[in-house]
Design a protein that fits this description.
heterodimer, A: alpha+beta, five-stranded antiparallel β-sheet, 54% strand, globular, B: mainly alpha, two-stranded antiparallel sheet, 3 strands, 6% strand, flat
Amino acid sequence: MNNMEIITFGDKDYYILKEKESNGINYIYLSNVDNPKDIMIRKSSNKDKDLYVPLDGENEFNKACLLLFKN
Amino acid sequence: MKDDMRDASQRLRNNSISGESARRNKTLSERQIRRKEARRLENEKEEKRGQRLKYLLVAVTTAASIILGTTGVSAINNEMVVNGMIDDFQEEVVSDNTFRTNNHQNFWYDYQNIAISLNDYAKENGLSECQTMYLCEHALAWNKDVEEDQMNELLKFTDYKNLDNFLQENGFKNKADFENQMKAELPIVDHINEEQTKLDEMQNNRENSLEQESGKSRGGM
């Protein structure tokens, strides 16, 4: 059976739509289970690969957007 | 629509660079996901892949609008970029597999050979299978009426066998979904490939320059 991975931020569940890796950092693209317009990107923490944290500003955000389309 | 997209872009940006952290915690079974969706969408039932595509399409087009905004590429340029990519595919793959009929009144495609070329073309040009299929579809079609028939002819020579299977197995609800997503993705991929080429050239120039300097200093010793 195909399962979809969920990650919970606060009290909200997000589907993990895609994952992209770059230079040892894992970026995940998320969509709120209850609201498809609520989307965001998180990255794995350097100290703890299982912990997903916000991006470090505009530059990293633009890079993460570009990664989404990279094959 | 533009204001909606701008708002969505801003929300994506703000949500991504601030807010909470979390660990991966759980996996929902397909049945649990469907129950959640049924509650939220009332009586509307969607395939899991179709729903996922809807979420992904919102994310993709939102991210695309951000990238296109930061690179200053307009909608008209996007169309030119995609048309250019279709022309390249036409020249590199389709032309060599186009033949005249015996009476020279019509022409025909060697669909089998074109199908075989798709994987290599995708790898050489940094494209996904779906992106390549989009370029192929538009390079082949001389008018919209025959698009689907031609795609079905081509796809007979792939594992998908037909267009419906191709769309379904790649998570597209229908052909329009496929078209919209590829039109959003292709200009970005083209931009990434261009930037990568520039980086490679800079790297090569730097390496050549270092080699030359090293050669001069040895000669001077």
